[in-house]
Each structure stands twice: as C-alpha cells, then as structure tokens.
Amino acid sequence: MTDLHPELDPATGALLQFLAAAGTPPMSQQTPEQARAGFRTLAVDLRDDSLLPPMAEVTDTEVPGPAGPRPARVYRPHVEGPLPAKNIDTGMGLERVAYLLQGKQNMYEIDEVFPVIEKAAELTGDQRGDDAGTLHADTASFRDNAEGYFLDAETMLWFGAQYAGPAGVDPSDPRLSPRLGDLAGLAPAVVVTAQFDPLRDDGDGYARALADAGVRVEHRRFAGLIHGFVDMGRHSPAADAAVLETCRLFGELLHR
Length: 256
Description:
The protein is 34% helix and 13% strand. It has two domains: 1-32 and 128-256, Rossmann fold, CATH 3.40.50.1820; 47-127, no CATH class. The longest helix is centred in the C-terminal third of the chain and has 18 residues, at 237-254. The protein is of the alpha+beta class.
C-alpha cells in the first residue's frame, strides 16, 4: 500500500488499510454493477440499522422522463416537515425521492435527472441541489492524491469514461464540469471538499466560480479526510463531525 500522508485522519487511515488488506479490486477493474455492489457494502450494508429514522410511509411511484415514466420511491419519516429533498446518508429524518436508474446512465441522459429534481421539490418544497459533479483537471490535488486515498487516478478516469460515454466529448462541456458553464442565478449552495480528495481543487474552484458569479455559497475544506467521507462517519469520528457540520450548513441555508 502507498505510504499515507501523516496529516491523514488516523481512523480514515485504518479504514484504507483494511480495504487494501481485503484485496478487493479497484473500481477501475470492475464492471459498473460490481462497483455499485461494493460501494453499497461500504456505505449501506455495514451501517447500524437501529440508528435509521423510522418511516411513516414508503411509496412507490413514477416520475416523468424524456423516454417515458421512470420508477421512484418516496420515503416519509416520522418527523415534522417541510423537509429537504436529499439525505446525505447521515441517518437524519429527511424525505427523499430515490431515482431507480435502469442500465447505464451517462451525460447524454442527464435530461432525465431534471424531472426527478422537480418531483422532489414538489413533494418536499425544496428546490435546491447539493451535489456538484465535475470532471478532474490537472490539479495539485489530483497529482498529490492520485493513489492510496480511496478515489485514485485510474478510478477517476474510469468514472469519466462511464459518464462521458463515446470518445471525442468536448472537455469544456458544462455537463462534464458544471463550473465551466453559466453559474449566474443558481440557487445558494454548500460546497464541501476533503484534503486528500483528488477532486479537492476542482471542488474548491467550483465554490470560487459560484461566488464570482454572485451565488451565495458556503464552502468548507475538511482537513485529514478523503473522497466519500460522508459515508464513513461510523468508521471515523472526524468524518462524522464533518458530516454534522455539513448538515448544519445545509440547515442554515435552507431556513434563511
């Protein structure tokens, strides 16, 4: 295993050593189906179900899409609303619409996402997004964290190929990197990055681009953590604290 930086969160380092010792092939050597199953094991199957909020209702429904209706599922927890549309897998009692994608999804099917967002906003009264997808640039964080920190360079290239689809895609297409598009008038945003994430500098740049476009943005860079820390709270107190801080930022933004 690659020598890890001494500033890495110790608990996260232990998790990385455990994953390396397990001998699981990296995502770049897996099919999308295998990669999804492996990530589910880490993020879902290892969680403590007793910490999950009780559901008042779980309903299967459909949302419109360019190619016809798409299946969705609505979770309504036993808490008072209104509630935001997205849960960051913290066990908080939030309502969400789970978009059940069938088959491979890439940038050419991105239009199917917007009806889902609109449906979630209709159900919850929340019209803000919280995710910033990006395609990596030749940045210091990509070079410094290219190996050993869960999301590595080869896996990033694999994700890019899965998302962009056929060769010859214009790298300046905003569907690949939203910060290269017109950001004026976007909703207020929370952008969080991690010190040892290859995408750290891209995320930091996205936050700056939002601010330069006049968008209100709350930006935090969490020291010692890696890509995917939002799903690692049960393994790392530092990751858990970062998730709580992120949720606090979302709460303040949503209730302004």
